[in-house]
Amino acid sequence: MTAFRFETLATDGAARRGRLHTAHGTAETPAFMPVGTAATVKAMTPDAVRSTGAQIVLGNTYHLMLRPGADRVERLGGLHRFMDWPGPILTDSGGFQIMSLAARRKLTEAGVTFQSHIDGSKHELTPERSMEIQRQLDATITMVLDECTKWPIEEAEAESSMRLSMRWAERSKAAFVERDGYALFGIVQGSTFPDQRLESAAALTAIGFDGYAVGGLAVGEGQTATFNALDVTVPALPGDKPRYLMGVGRPDDIVGAVARGVDMFDCVMPTRSGRTGKAFTRRGEINIRNARHADDPRPLDETCDCPACARFSRAYLHHLFKAEEILGPVLLTWHNLRHYQALMADIRAAIEARTFAAFQAAFAAEQAKGDIEPV
Amino acid sequence: MTAFRFETLATDGAARRGRLHTAHGTAETPAFMPVGTAATVKAMTPDAVRSTGAQIVLGNTYHLMLRPGADRVERLGGLHRFMDWPGPILTDSGGFQIMSLAARRKLTEAGVTFQSHIDGSKHELTPERSMEIQRQLDATITMVLDECTKWPIEEAEAESSMRLSMRWAERSKAAFVERDGYALFGIVQGSTFPDQRLESAAALTAIGFDGYAVGGLAVGEGQTATFNALDVTVPALPGDKPRYLMGVGRPDDIVGAVARGVDMFDCVMPTRSGRTGKAFTRRGEINIRNARHADDPRPLDETCDCPACARFSRAYLHHLFKAEEILGPVLLTWHNLRHYQALMADIRAAIEARTFAAFQAAFAAEQAKGDIEPV
User: Fold this and answer.
1) Which chain A positions have a beta carbon within 8 Å of B84's beta carbon?
2) Per-residue pLDDT reduced to its tens digit, B140-150
3) Quick one: which of A337, A338, A312 has its CA closest to A325?
4) CA-nearest residue of chain B to A271?
5) Angle (CA) A254 A22 A89, round 5°
6) For A51-84, what is each residue's pLDDT tens digit?
7) Quick check: is B374 in a domain?
């Protein structure tokens, strides 16, 4: 069994081309992790997910602990076997979802108690319990339990929340059962306050983790503020460990974050947008439900090699959404995930070639063109 | 371009092992045609449909003429290109769906006028218009426009309806544009009245079609009455043409109909059931939503080689349906279609080996066992 390890293969400015080595295989970075909330990347078979180029996926502790339950997943051989994803899986700690429950949860020093959104049943999540659940799920990468603050937030409130998250990080580390090829990541908090981000990064580094996530961003603060937070935070993190920007983002968010030294990403955007008919293309986003596509024999994106683009017309995809056919969400999710993975492959190639700045400029120019003219 | 042709490869009693030769390739018979109502076999990619062994699929004229419209499909290169199904496609005539609109339609000698279930717009379907629409769709096999009667029905009403359908069959034949490798099928009506079935079969044979369907069955009359109608009708049809039992059915309906000389089938059962969590197995039907499956590590059907059975547990499939994940309907549809195609392959092999009677007995015995015991 291999040790968990992050290998840097090339750099270009702050951007890094790397490789994660885990108990469940490797993942090339910068990496985008499709979100498999309830043990499935929505609307996709695992084969389809793999075919897009994804090597690592994300699962949500909050959803899985409630349904089907961590005990059950453990009895069934863990998440990899359960959902037929033998590759690496990262699970979040449950904190983010629970914080968004607002009225349905109560926070103390010990942890958080909350009511299930499914059946109203009461549950408690502590750092120790989160570690236990993620072990039962057999997560390759476990995330510490943290409090993800809302935005905007008062400085003092952000600070006390961040310090609670740091105490929870320490308890998470103490409770985490080390296994060869498995990893525990800390999460930097501190909202958009540079001093707090630095304090948090230093606190986590002192505890020592296998990787470092930047949390509490992309919650409404805007791309400039996100990037500013990265500019402060990333240089304060150990250079030999992977960096993961949680819940981000749109393609241009990802490109900008890679330029700032981020290695890993996850976001529901490609899957959620796909289910509602929104497609990402090299020339920006389009809504396939729009009537302008009804007679268009051209593919969504002629530069894309996904089944939706290689096999079908915009007219057909438009028809599927108008007729509310399941194949519509399936094909657009597939396209969006392939679009994201093709972007990550291009990013990795540009860093290897040390042409990332040129790539970044060309990417922005292409996005700015907007969709092709109607037929 | 090949002529449309039905080749008989072997027989066993009344059962026939054959092959359809068409402009869009061949299909082995007895054949089950998955239903692709709105230019998609619901929840399946064309690759997935092909992987189950299906060689010919069905489209619904009624749905397609309303959305996306026959003109549009024609402009986009026909149904084969539109839905990425290069193989043979059979389209029904629209009659069956329109009859089920009841209050929203009006029948005359000329044809039927009806209101769209989508937007209330008015449409007319005549035998001539149905032929034109199916030509625009580029159907490999076109069905005549008929009136599909409800059941039960008075003898006199069934008779006048059947005779109207025969006049429409003659008009359909006159309006059908012959093309190499394309076919027009007549439809025998006459409900459960033997004399009417014989009259209808004789009338169609006199007109002359490339194949003969038996319509108006599986509408509530029960399996015995269906089989009785086949016992009367099939021997009255030309031996050198394919026979198609429309809208049938469950696996045991199919096995019994093959024994009576039927070559082709279609039914929404495997796809519709799959979307609601019902699975067909060699040991009968099961509902994966049932709590007894929640912890079951075994596959749906250990004799099945579909992805749902080869890759996942009953527990996982149960979870997907409880969590209302799209992958649940996708996987159960896939399983059911594979189950049907595997059944057809076994049927074909048994006829070739002249062991169809033994196969039929073994099939019934296995079905009667019921599902495996809970773990």
Assistant:
1) 311-312
2) 999 999 998 88
3) A312
4) B326
5) 60
6) 999 999 999 999 999 999 999 999 999 999 999 9
7) no
